[in-house]
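Incident log entry.

Two folding requests arrived from the same account within the same minute. Monitoring flagged them as a possible duplicate submission, but the sequences differ. Recording both here for audit purposes.

Request one:
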Amino acid sequence: MSHAAHPVLDLPFDVTPDPDEFVRAAMEWHFDPATGSPFWLRRARSLDFDPRRDVKSHADLRLFPNVVNELRDVPVTDLLPRGYGERPDIVGTFESGGTTGAPKRVICLRDWMDRMVAWSNANLDAHGFPRGAQWLGVTPSGPHVVGRIFEKSATTHAVSASSSTWTRAG
């Protein structure tokens, strides 16, 4: 995140922040004209409350309407928080599977991908998944983030293709 982000928003994935402190910091980040995304700044104008003033706890998130359908056709550039600067480190734009209608879009920046991969790796380690093993990944491809996370986890857990010996059975 930007240097202007509240420290609670940049905690390592395995540190659990106070939920209400996290919500307050997120409201400041996403609804501040200097750091928020065009989508959320525009959406704030249609709300009957001020997210920065009125959303102070996890329970207050109920004030927000369900915006899931708006994520189906929002321009991807409208999802980029201004706080990441002029040249944000975008890893990719991903979509849901579309099982409930048209796919929903999200944009993933480097810091979020790094956190998701670290979380994934910690879970693999916790469940005894061996490092240095050969992987066969059967994951969604295309615009789904799951395949990208799996690919990144494989680079830290799996045998690299250059150092492994592959044989064909039969």
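Request two (distinct sequence, not a duplicate):
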Amino acid sequence: MLVSGYEMHNTFLPIQSKLQPPTLAETTVPRPRLQLLKNKKLPKEKLVTVIAPAGYGKSTLMAQWWQEVTENSFKTCWLSLGEEDNNPSQFLEYLVANIKNLGSPFNLDIIEKLHVKEFTNLNTVINLLIQALQKSSKPVVFFLDDLHLLQDPTSKSLLKYFISYAPKNVSWIIAKRRQANKEFHFYQKKYTVF
């Protein structure tokens, strides 16, 4: 297939705005009681969930946390989930894109050349991502916004597997509208935004 003069070979082109937090307005209200870092350290929980109805500021709070974490030199990944991410291959492609964005020392050669569609066992892709994250002890924080939109059982299972087996240096911050379901009850600290 030819697109704008470039030949495409099943290349996944991530939407870059899905890999970045929303821009904070200058009028954004600070929330010192909900600060993520305590003494410049991440919470000891592997998974922090932010649960609130639509319009209560989950994405804004997570963007503030993302800013706080990056200002303290932690490596970060961000994924704004959408209904289109219920395709397991596409969901994994976005996770791969996030690992690639981390750069050295996380960026294994195999990750750079990884094409999810070449794998029949998608857990193998997660295993490769875990290996890439084990290349360094530097803390990495994954932000997943709008998790309630991820309904596909395979995608949810892959995420549960990834969270369960990610190395100790990886923390997860997840925002969603509904109460925690049983799939993500492990290692959890909850913030309710009201």
